[in-house]
Amino acid sequence: MDFNDSPTEAAYREKARAWLAEAAVAHRAEHGEPKANTPEHMAAAKAWQARKAAAGYACITWPAAVGGGGGTPIESVIFGQEEGKAGVAYGYFTIGLGMCVPTVMAFSDTDTKKRFVSPAVKGEEIWCQLFSEPAGGSDVAALRTRAVRDGDEWVINGQKVWTTGAHYSDFGILLTRTDPDVPKHKGLTMFWIDMRDPAVECRPIHQMSGGREFNEVYFSDLRVKDSQRLGEVGQGWQVALVTLMNERLAVGGSAGPNYREVMELARALPGEDGPALSNDAFREKLADWFVASQGLKFTRFRTMTALSRGQTPGPESSIGKIISANQLQDLANTAVEMQGEYGILSGPEAAAGAAFQQSLMWAPGLRIAGGTDEILKNIIAERVLGLPGDVRVDKDVAFKDMPTGR
Amino acid sequence: MDFDYSDDQKFLKDEARKFLGGRCPPAVVRGVLDDPARSYDAPLWAAVAEQGWLGAAIPEEHGGLGLGRVELCAIAEELGRAVAPIPFASTVYILAEAVMAHGTAAQKAAILPRVAAGELIGALAVSEGPGALTPSALSARVEGGRLSGVKIPVTDGDVAHTAIVLAGEGGKPGLFLVDLTGPGVKRETLESLDPTRSVARLTFDGAAAERLGGAGEGFDLVQAILDRAAVLLAFEQLGGADRCLEMAKEYALGRYAFGRVIAGYQAIKHKLADMYVKNEVARSNAYYGAWALNDDAPELPTAAAAARIAASEAFWFAAKESVQVHGGMGFTWEVDCHLYYRRSRQLSLVAGSPRLWKERLVSELEKKNAA
């Protein structure tokens, strides 16, 4: 057991590091360090992606023929680590390159692939994923956005929700209902769409955290060509499963303060009897957070080990978000409560730049996004432990006859 | 990155599972559980010695196999899974490891070959009563190489040949090797939560005692010994926790209620998913502990604490919720759930409770943070 790279991995890391050192300096000289969510930030992100693609560091595991790096999964992980250390990582392309474009590659003709894959790899075009709806969150297959055939075209009406990056995306993959007369999973069809079409409208969602990072997307008589269909009519669910399978491979850490930050706060904070850090109840929690964080970190190492050995990683990475989201909520709340009455402040007077208050308000979203705690536990129970699925009363019912509630 | 058992280590672990499947089925565990006169299963102990496991990490010059600590972790995981009723931890994780780390050449030569051959059982005698033991409360004394005092409880103290005893000498706490078969030692077997692992009161009255490690270093040495043992115990706990999850799953898949298997209900599915999550956190922390132990890394105190805390939590949760999933059957003597429920308590308490380890962990983090 060790944490060292194999000789080939070490050589790759050295090469990547050398490239990153030079490229990051050149990139910063050209673009500076613009604020997030500005046009300048987006321009910098696209330039960085293009630079990576030219050097074979974008989509490292994809074949060079489509613009990828022709490398291995472990090389991709190593580059990601080094890129993070170099401080030049941007998140705009994750969903497109991680989920949407692989779906396009799997289900479209040669011309479509030729048109879209390379520009996406180079960061010229950004993609979003249009699945969730007000009536279909955990139960995505209950979605209602309707696509009706009209000659060689389809006319789409409906609404998506919680679409990350819809407002800056150029294209999207859209899951629609094409046949309400069959059970829900059987009447779905997938399309790619142009997000700049005037029949597509993005409205930001005002979240409970105060921010507006996600969107609702409305379709009013959006017309798409039948050639924009991905997979067969009625096979949309099978196509969506391919998209979601790719989601699993994104192994990431979670944002927000961790045990170190809350420990620093507790060290400086007066408690009833000495600093808050000397409080036994707090110390016990701190130990638990440390152990869970280490558990996640070393679970990622286990996944990397499997990749390094050329094996398929086990299911252990499925524990990540259940732990990190709940821990963030607990840690933030403890940090806030620890401050006594002062903890209610969330402005510039607040401790640690209000980081804990922000996390407290953000954590509920984290427990829901990308699979709720409850859905993730179902996934572990069914796919990892092999337990039976839930009773499904809607399995043999035509979609149009399903009870819908609000 | 190579953060998992190697192929050879996996092979060793598979072989250990097969071996224990044959030699240590629940009937063997119950043989010790149901017979107050038996403190451990002697045939299993002899068989384990024959396999070379007792000397797995002991150097070849002292009669062992000279394997690494990760191999020992793999064996520990399987022993935990089988709830093996033998004094393996006291002898191997504590006595042998302590002598290898802190013993003189003569002590190594006297003890290690006998451990490897299965001729010598060890024990660690620290506690003198309920709660934590502080230097000022320590009452066992050594004067002129003779030990007096009472130690309670001492795991495997009724069958051990050699104990490591914490006692004061000239007002300074030290560790002492004591031959429990010699004069001046009275031992009584005591009732405990886990009768498959025996516990004794040791009363010393002038027993011969030989110092292990430096004078006055007693408490530090105990901690150093427990840091090593904690990692190995964590693997036993992990093995037990994994088996509890399996048993709960198997039962839930075969038990019908309200017209379908109870494994299909979310209340059960989510409980088993929670077990899985805790077990994986424990496994990843245990692997890190194995690395730190094997490499004698400076991170060992933190890694051992994290491994112990995660494994204690995982085994306790899996053991108690496995009873729950089994329903009324789980509460009977005949079903094996309580073997694990008992062992989960024994393993959590034997080398300092999780609370103590949490405090130790945070103290280490404070030191690291201040540095």
Automatic annotation (TrEMBL), chain A:
InterPro entries: Acyl-CoA_Oxase/DH_mid-dom, Acyl-CoA_Oxase/DH_mid-dom_sf, AcylCo_DH-like_C, AcylCo_DH/oxidase_C, AcylCoA_DH/ox_N, AcylCoA_DH/ox_N_sf, AcylCoA_DH/oxidase_NM_dom_sf, Mycobact_Acyl-CoA_DH. The keyword Magnesium does not apply. Its cofactor is FAD. Transmembrane segments: none annotated. Residues 128-221 form the Acyl-CoA oxidase/dehydrogenase middle domain. Keywords: FAD, Flavoprotein, Oxidoreductase. One of its GO terms (molecular function) is flavin adenine dinucleotide binding. GO terms for cellular component: plasma membrane. Gene3D superfamilies: Acyl-CoA dehydrogenase/oxidase, N-terminal domain (1.10.540.10), Butyryl-CoA Dehydrogenase, subunit A, domain 2 (2.40.110.10), Butyryl-CoA Dehydrogenase, subunit A, domain 3 (1.20.140.10). Residues 7-124 form the Acyl-CoA dehydrogenase/oxidase N-terminal domain. Residues 234-385 form the Acyl-CoA dehydrogenase/oxidase C-terminal domain. It comes from the Bacteria. Belongs to the acyl-CoA dehydrogenase family. This is Acyl-CoA dehydrogenase. It comes from Caulobacter sp. 602-2.
TrEMBL record, chain B:
Residues 6-119 form the Acyl-CoA dehydrogenase/oxidase N-terminal domain. Coiled coil: none annotated. It comes from the Bacteria. Pfam families: Acyl-CoA_dh_1 (PF00441), Acyl-CoA_dh_N (PF02771). CDD domains: ACAD. Its cofactor is FAD. Residues 216-353 form the Acyl-CoA dehydrogenase/oxidase C-terminal domain. The keyword rRNA-binding does not apply. The keyword Oxidoreductase applies. GO terms for molecular function: acyl-CoA dehydrogenase activity; flavin adenine dinucleotide binding. Keywords: FAD, Flavoprotein, Oxidoreductase. Belongs to the acyl-CoA dehydrogenase family. This is Acyl-CoA/acyl-ACP dehydrogenase. It comes from Caulobacter sp. 602-2.
